[in-house]
Amino acid sequence: MIEKIKGLLKETEEFVVKNVDELEQYRLKYLSKKGEISTLFGDFKNVAPELKKEVGQKINLLKQSAQQKFDELKDYLEDQSDNTEGTDLSRPGEPIELGSRHPISLVKNEIVSIFNKLGFTVDEGPEIEDDWHVFSALNFPPEHPARDMQDTFFIEKEPDILLRTHTSSVQVRVMQNQKPPIRTLLPGRVFRNEAISARAHCIFHQIEGLFVAENVSFADLKQTLMYFAKEMFGEKTQIRLRPSYFPFTEPSAEMDVSCSICAGKGCNVCKYTGWLEILGCGMVDPNVLENCGIDSEKYTGFAFGMGVERIAMLKYQIKDLRLYFENDVRFLRQFKSAY
Ligand code: PHE
User: Fold this and answer.
1) What atom in ligand 1 is closest to the CA of residue 252?
2) Does ligand 1 come within 6 angstroms of the Cβ of 246?
3) Which of 74, 112, 123, 197 gives the lowest tally of CB atoms within 10 Å of its CB?
């Protein structure tokens, strides 16, 4: 019997298969209920008691090894069928889907590149800020009602720490750390405690611009914004400045551009006024310059700030702000652009 086991061990080890039929023959011959190994187990009762231990172990080893061999043969055949045999190599490949940039990134990049041409660089600052950078340094006195204008997210345990409500906080950081002339753009995310709707969101993006040097005037501000408006919305675009108020600029203004959709004739996008409001601006308040360690007798500056979502809405005629944040690919894949 031991000879028989040895013989079977050798046979199974040396067995080769070329296809699944041969594999099935192997299984029937050795592993099936009526196969050689089952027969051995059947004959086991006739083995002399003193040999039972040795023979038993050997049969078990044979069974394991034959099963292992079966698994190996099966893997081998599967690998073979994964091979190119039978595959049509001339078939065109599956297309790789290209991503597209988010409309907010596109518009941000476009705005940055327009101001780059005027020599503006880019600076960034933290989204979690302290009261000083967001409010105090920007001339908001402690009880100033303007602090309520912007519904702020405060950190519960540390009321001095908050999520910035505008990127003007980065103005402060730049003025503290750089010497005039300063000419920079400050893009970033801002946070306000607003109910989410088609027209408002608690997170959005701003781009602020800051220019501080000797003899910077309101005329420079106007010229810069006019250039921007024409580059962004087309050569025929007109601008209009309306007096406004921000604690950190004096004088302050809001800028409208002529509606690029109806060319100023009146449509539902501009609510039949012919104008679209796109940004706030003004001359940097001397107090703000002084708060940041800049000599307000020597230097003057202008600043402006705009919402990227708003500009993108006008550019792409997007009617619902929430689309920017849902990341539905059917929305996203519509944006292809040089930026
Ligand atoms: N920070 C202002 C806002 O969030 C915008 C602004 C920036 C106004 C710079 C004037 C100058 O509304």
Assistant:
1) 10
2) yes
3) 197
Give pLDDT, residue 145: 63
CA of 269 relative to ligand 1 center, distance in Å = 23
* pTM for this entry: 0.71
Range of the domain at 284: 103-332
CA of 140 to the centre of ligand 1 (A): 13
Query: In this structure, what CATH number is given to the domain that contains residue 311?
Result: 3.30.930.10
**Is residue 266 very low, low, confident or very high in pLDDT (cuts 50, 70, 90)?**
confident
Quickly state the pLDDT bin for 78 (edges 50, 70, 90): confident
- Domain stop point among 37, 56, 84: 84
Distance CA 6, CA 10 (A): 6
Mode of pairing for the β-strands spanning 300-307 and 203-213: antiparallel
pLDDT in tens, 168-186: 999 999 999 999 999 999 9
Question: What percent of the chain has pLDDT above 70?
Answer: 96
DSSP 273-324: SSEEEEEEEEEEPHHHHHHTT--TTT-EEEEEEEEHHHHHHHHHT---TTHH
Quote the DSSP letter at residue 91. Answer: S
Which among 62, 44, 64, 63 has a CA at the least distance from the CA of 53?
Answer: 44
Whole-angstrom distance, CA of residue 280 vs CA of residue 256: 9
Residues 130, 18: one domain?
Answer: no
Distances in Å between the Cα of 112 and the Cα atoms of 43, 118, 126, 320, 331 are 87, 10, 19, 24, 24
Total domains in the chain come to 2
Report whether residue 166 contacts ligand 1, using a CB cutoff of 6 Å. yes
In a domain? residue 96: no
Nearest CA to ligand 1 atom 2: 305
Q: Quick one: 220 and 281 in the same domain?
A: yes
280 lines ligand 1 (CB under 6 A): yes
Question: Which region among 34-38, 120-124, 144-148 has the lowest average model confidence (pLDDT)?
Answer: 144-148
The answer as to whether 109 is a domain residue is: yes
